[in-house]
């Protein structure tokens, strides 16, 4: 399914196609695994976001919101390096 948006800027109108992007099965499996792990460790999840442009999932978790996790398309994940 595609949606079309008219974008107005610099005095001209352009039409852009945006395809709906969903997480991969590997990403979904990794989200379930990490959610269960965080739950077992009694860590709250504060933010969960799928970024369709980067095709990655971003999670903020932990009592102090100190855990930042990125899940890539292939299901691999890592802690974010942002401080």
List the helices and strands and how they pair.
Layout (H helix, E strand, L loop, with lengths): L1 E8 L2 E8 L5 H16 L4 E7 L4 E6 L5 E5 L5 E3 L4
Antiparallel strand pairs: 1-2, 3-4, 4-5, 5-6
What do you see in this structure?
The chain has 83 residues and is of the alpha+beta class. The chain has a domain at 22-79. The protein has one helix spanning 25-40, and strands at 2-9, 12-19, 45-51, 56-61, 67-71, 77-79. It is globular, with a radius of gyration of 17 Å. The protein starts with a strand and ends with a strand. The model has no long low-confidence stretch (mean pLDDT 84).
* Overall pLDDT confidence: 84
- Poorly predicted regions are none
* Run of helices and strands: EEHEEEE
Give a short account of the largest sheet. Answer: 4 strands, antiparallel
Please provide the count of β strands: 6
> Radius of gyration, rounded?
17 Å
Q: Could you estimate the helical fraction of the residues in percent?
A: 10-25%
Q: Structural class, from secondary structure content?
A: alpha+beta
User: So how many helices?
Assistant: 1
Distance between the termini: 38 Å
């Amino acid at each position: 399914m595609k949606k079309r948006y008219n974008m107005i800027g610099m005095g001209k109108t352009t039409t852009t196609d945006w395809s709906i992007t969903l997480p991969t099965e590997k990403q979904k499996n990794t989200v379930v695994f990490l959610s269960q792990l965080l739950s077992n460790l009694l860590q709250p999840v504060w933010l969960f976001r799928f970024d369709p442009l980067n095709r990655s999932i971003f999670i903020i978790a932990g009592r102090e919101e100190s855990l930042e996790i990125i899940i890539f398309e292939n299901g691999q994940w890592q802690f974010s390096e942002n401080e």
